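Progress report, Aim 2. The chain analyzed during this reporting quarter is listed below.
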Amino acid sequence: MAIAEFNALRTEIAGRSSAQHGLLNLSLVATAAIGTIAFSDPARRPVLLVLAVLSCIFSLLYFDHHAAIATIGKYIKNELAPDLRECTAWRRALWREEFVRVEASARTGLAKGMIRFDLPIILAFLVVPVLSTVYLASLASGFWFWAAWSVGVLAEALTVVVGVSATRGWRSEIDEQVRSADV
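Predicted structure tokens for the chain:
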């Protein structure tokens, strides 16, 4: 029973990870398409305002999958792993999961934490929308334009807050594991 549950959870992790890649790809393709439309005619430049909102939506969905994968991993480690080791009587049951956890905790410097893993994902959802929002500020005119521009800025801020808080939780768990392993 525990082995079937483990296999189902690993399948869910794989599906969510695949969905994350799909969201990242969709975000990049949407950015390119909107950029092409906006820069094909100067009158279409305000279309760039859509980038911040779309990017925010894609990033929120991405980090939702991130949180679900982390929760599943925590469940496997804390609840399922002891049962699996007991019912299989195999000393190396879930060895790969433990290996990945140890490898992550052993990283130092740039390889540990935000620079190597988190920052590229956050930037993928933010660089072009932020640059387009900054660029559009120079073209701004009228109440509705500024209202839309403000929504874009808020969406970008939300992307940063959610991205940093989602990845901070993952990094703090790894640091906690290192401290408990040292004791």
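The mean pLDDT is 82. The chain is about 85% helix and 0% strand. These observations will guide the mutagenesis work planned for the next reporting period.
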